[in-house]
Amino acid sequence: MNTRIQYKFLVFLFGLVFLLTGRAEFSFAASQTQLLSGLSAAVGIALDEANNHLYFVEYNAPDLKRIILTPECENDPAVTCVVDTVATGFTHAEDVQLDPGHGLAYVTTRDDPGTSGVLWRVDISSGTKNMVTFNLGAPQQLVLDIPNDQAYVVGYNDGRLRRINLTTGVKTPVFTGLSHPVGLAVTSDGNYAYVTEQGPPAIISEIDLTTGLKVREVVRDGVSGVSLVAPFFMAWRDISQNSLYVVERDPANRVSTVDLITSTKSDVITGLPWRPSGIAVSSLGSPLYITADNRIVRVDMVVFDLTEPVFLGVGHVPSTDIVDGYATTDPLYFFKVKHSPFGGTLNIFGNLNNFKSLSATHYEVLVSKDGGAFEALDHSWRAYKWNPDPLIAKYEPVTIAPETGTTRYSIPSEYPLHAQWWYPPFLFMRWPSGENGLYTFKVKIYDSVGTDITWKLPAAQNSLTVRIDNTPPEVKLSNICQKGVAGLSSDPCYPDKEVQACDIVSSGPNKYYFKVKAYDPNQHLRYYSLKALWGDNTSGRIEFHNYSGDAAHPAPAGHVDAEGPYKWSGVINARIPSNPAGVWKAACNCAHTFDLWGGKRTINGYHYILRRRYHKSITINNTGLSCP
């Protein structure tokens, strides 16, 4: 029987990674679980996630085997993993890679009789194996390029990186002169290969596959403080292919990451069983599966990116475009706002993918007003969820609510792989704002047993502050004045005459001005505008003022920070128009409506929400011109 040992250690490596370049800060945590023991120099390993199979080879055993991965096998120490033999008859196998689309596996063997190493093709269903090519100089790690029907492999003894045609077996040296190469990784575009060379000294080299030249040494043991010990097989950390996992054998017995951009190395998994060799990485980045000399371990690896956002944004506004509680987006962004407070009901979007990757199953959203105590929110709302039933195949409304008796929301199981099943995706709080003030939000996350694991979130990112202003502006067209017609001293237009609503003006000059109020006591006015409307859908602008200014209305240029940072309150009893003559003239005789609008910068994340209108109508019959 296989013994399963739960390795009860947690390695935390906090600090700035890539300090010299100012790149991301990371924290790492890893835990190990033994899947299989009693092996004879396990080396290559490959993961078939679609079928939950883990393939591996042993240097001192003749078989290609696979583990049937089940939740019980991987997580319950009392359950023994089921192991199948897929094919046999190999001599000193080194690596295995999969072509699951064609039901094939490929195996490198080091020194079959009469050869210096062979690449084998294996039919997974039947176990039948066929030689692809031979004399490969003690082949080590293998990389498949299935779309181009080719593979890459390095030869430990002859120092060559080869390209192999998987149909004809023709092998082409891409680069020679490597110093005992073992590990190999190739970029998805086929432009570059990365090779571990055991030397001495131990190095990781970059090869240009197009020119066949060594571009550089990414890292070298003993240079710039790097310790690189017996580097073996490698794997890409993620789809960005900017960094690699590198297995380091005894006496280091660890896995490191090597950043290809900054040429820096960090040890991330230590305390591995003796002589680790192969590594396979889940498409989600965790778990990892690592072969050691006599066992295979699963490593649950969490990489905490301390620059990963917690809050994605509010509506169309990214969280990083909210400063001091105000939204200001890029001028070329489709939703352009400047110094906008928030109001109404806000859709707040959170990084549910990252929460899930940190092993969180639940979250809370807490809010504080004006620096007061934080309180957890417990609102409910409706969202759409995709129904994949072929007979339905549409988005259907569902209710989102905290779990009964709590303020904790369950993270849907569709994250992170099927975030698109939710519409809108990543909506994790719908908050009806109310009383004006400065509100700060933060998030707590919990694992499946209810443990608070908020410490995994980057503290610097776990805050969102919004300024709430739900007060509408005050808008009033106070007076219409006719210039050049004497008014009484008590007339608000004195020395000119006020024209009352519904009056008919038949004499005097065709000259008018207006007294208006467009005012926001909270100093968040966005614009005010007075227009004249007459006749058959005819109109003309009399006055327009805009907080930010725009090309269509260059005068005035705007009122940004007119009364202090983010502040403009507008006008009270202002005389307009502000043209040099100070008057407006009607174009023709007709009934006229004067329409005053005032709007605030308050948004709900999708559009402006607070504006008011005031209008008065008179008939003008003194222009001497008839309307068309």
Structure report:
Strands 1, 2, 3, 24, 25 and 26 form a 6-stranded antiparallel sheet that branches. Strands 32, 33, 36, 39 and 40 form a 5-stranded antiparallel sheet that branches. This protein folds into 3 domains: 6-303, Neuraminidase (6 Propeller); 344-468; 474-620, no CATH class. Strand 21 and strand 22 (254-259) form a beta hairpin. With 628 residues, the chain is mostly beta strands. It is elongated, with a radius of gyration of 36 Å. The chain is 2% helix and 47% strand. The chain contains 2 helices and 49 strands.
CATH architecture of the largest domain: 6 Propeller
Largest sheet: 6 strands, antiparallel
**Any idea what the shape is?**
elongated
Query: Any idea how many domains?
Result: 3
Fold-level CATH name of the largest domain: Neuraminidase
Poorly predicted residue ranges: 1-24
Brief digest:
The chain is mostly beta strands and 628 residues long. Mean pLDDT is 91; it is low at 1-24.
Please name the defining characteristics of this protein.
628 residues, elongated, disordered N terminus, mainly beta, 5-stranded antiparallel β-sheet, 3 domains, Neuraminidase, 2 helices
